[in-house]
Amino acid sequence: MTATVAAPAGALPGVKDEPRAAGVIGQTRAGWGLLTPFLVLYLAFLIGPAVYGLLMSFFDGSSVRPGLGPFAGLDNYTEALTSADFWSSMWHTVLFTILTTPPLVIVALLLAMLTDRIRRGKWFFRLVFFAPYVMPVTCVGLVFTWMYVPQTGLFATWLGALGLPAPAWLADPNWAMIAIALMTVWWTIGFNFVLYLAGLQDIPRELYEASAVDGAGPGAQWWRITVPLLSRTTVLVTMLQIIASLKVFDQIYLLTAGGPNYSTRPVIEYIYDVGFTDFRTGYGAAASMLYFVVILAVSAVWFAISRRRA
Amino acid sequence: MTESYPKGTSRRAALGALGLAGVGALTAGCGSPIAAGIAGTGPDATSLTYWNLFTGGDGINMVAMTDRFRARHHNVHVDAVTLAWGTPYYTKLALAVIGDRPPDVAITHLSRLPTLAEGNLVEPLRPADLTAHGLTGDRFTAAAWRKGQVGGAQYAVPLDTHPFVMFYRTDVCAKAGLLDGSGKLKPIEGTDGLVAALSACAKVTGGYGGVVNVNADPATCWRWFDTLYGQLGGQVLADNGTRIVLDEAKAEKALSFARELTVQRKLMPSNIDGSGVTQLFASGKVGLLFDGEWQIPTYQGAKTPFSVAPVPNLFGGTYHCFADSHALILPRNGRRDARRRDASLTLVRGLLDNSLIWAKGGHIPAFREIQDSATFRRMEPQSQYVPAAKAAIYDPAGWYSGAGSDFENIMGFAVSAVEAGQLHPAAAIAQLRRKLADYASRPAPVGGTNS
């Protein structure tokens, strides 16, 4: 590492100030100019709708009536906060996050470490572990639905060969969420795996060599070098994973449609049900806003942690 | 980089030329729906958009019907759009009307029609226009035609009736001694009769006797329950969904019987999804299947030896089985003039004239000319359950009810939990009451009032 500290340009002798300042202003303008297309899209498709959604949540709007509808004040929020269905769907989302985040972080780390140790054909394992991630959810959902088929599905056959009874994967309220989590881990682990692999490859090999000279075994190396130097990656992976898991919808909708008996309906499906199926856009918007606050809180925690570490 | 351009052409000039070409392509495409959509001009009066929700076998049949129409009417251009069934379809339809870009003609389920009409999303059809196109009540299945009316006005022209029926494997039932001399299923009477028939089939298959979908398909669970509960004369909603009239004793009777078949007697699986149902029936591991007639192409394709009969009358009351209808509507459109309305109704009539193709999908044509035709009468097994269409009672009206609605989900999930043995009938009824009350007490987000 050769660290060179650049001297401030203004301190250089013989360079006049005026042309530089004009150049900076010109650069700033060009910068904004280059940003404009993105800013316009950002305002039109993200900020604008978000503000409109917030506004909507205070009205009794309907998707089959034009306009915002009658003013409702905080009624929509009161209804959501006192609705058993809203809270149970909130819990299902949290449960899914609890079931998926630890394996998606820990297993991804293990797979990345194993792949990192391989000398030849590393590309093959990178491809194998990452490949499921690029598959569309509809295909993954269909394949796993078949594997979960009671009696004749692949999982039932495998467990049967071991002499174990297969649970009613998608039909038993106690198993349905686990079955969905299992599929999600297989499907999405590639992303975390790649992040971890990149993190591992960033650790200087000299550290391991030096520690080996000092007599550190593999265990000590892992605990004293790998884990601490990966901590930034771990924070990133964990927080990204929590946020991704909190946004679950597609695979649940495809696998169980929120059943059996609403036992897997996540909060986004609840919002979809009330907002689209029931036409109640105002109430749907209020439920979305409450949920937005939750995601925002989680993101704020991430922000705090990553700032402290920086 | 620059060497890839012809000599004397700057990059800027090349990009400019590309941009011009793009604008040219856009303006040249004025006749295209996209350009017309952007400009808001709308296509030519005789160019119609037709939205439907049919995929699979039904989708193929609908394409064939539209093609036939095109071949006969060169002056009408039909742009057919197929969208996914269920909630997404009705959401898109509603938003298209609100957004002032409705299709000219669209398919709806009749169970959804009251909500569409109250939401002012569909145009009433003038009697004079209907008569001009030969679309009068006497030429349709009476129940379906009546269900096409809201508040005394005709809003929809029914295309079919699609009841919930009983499929039977002819090979399994023959061995079980359930067929008569001509190879038809002997009448099954009462719950005891059905239990006996299922037991006989179970003896033949060595496993289950029959099957109905339990998992992840609340609509089918609702159809099965509605068939049983409706035969007891039970109703769920009244006064446009503002009042819950669920009869607990009758509902408990119906639920208990459904549960008895799966959990207690194990004559039907208590844990089975859509693909499992198809597998069991197609491979002969059950004798009877309760499902919509629209599954007929599935088993014809699988070369399954089967036929279809109406669901038996199990409780001895007035006969009932779940049924709904596909129907054609003209979504509300302020720009629709007389010529376009005429072309739209020509398309409606044209599709009805070709509904013998539609019947291949298992549906009973609502147009009597087709339904009474010798060709349809010879069509097997379609002609076997025509009475089910005449007895059709549709889902109760309410802003939250109809095909693919939350009402179907609420009912279906509870029924599924009972059939799977996860919930006792009494607990399921309590859950139904609680969830339905949430909807019944709320002002409708559709239309001006609840009435």
TrEMBL record, chain A:
PROSITE patterns: ABC_TM1 (PS50928). One of its GO terms (cellular component) is plasma membrane. Residues 90-302 form the ABC transmembrane type-1 domain. It holds the Pfam family BPD_transp_1. It is a multi-pass membrane protein. CDD domains: TM_PBP2. The keyword Transmembrane applies. InterPro entries: MetI-like (IPR000515), MetI-like_sf (IPR035906), UgpAE/MalFG_permease (IPR050809). GO terms for biological process: transmembrane transport. Belongs to the binding-protein-dependent transport system permease family. PANTHER family: BLL4140 PROTEIN, DIACETYLCHITOBIOSE UPTAKE SYSTEM PERMEASE PROTEIN DASB. This is Sugar ABC transporter permease.
TrEMBL record, chain B:
The keyword Signal applies. It holds the Pfam family SBP_bac_1. One of its GO terms (cellular component) is ATP-binding cassette (ABC) transporter complex, substrate-binding subunit-containing. It comes from the Bacteria. Residues 1-28 form the signal peptide. GO terms for molecular function: maltose binding. Keywords: Signal, Transport. GO terms for biological process: maltodextrin transmembrane transport; maltose transport. This is Sugar ABC transporter substrate-binding protein.
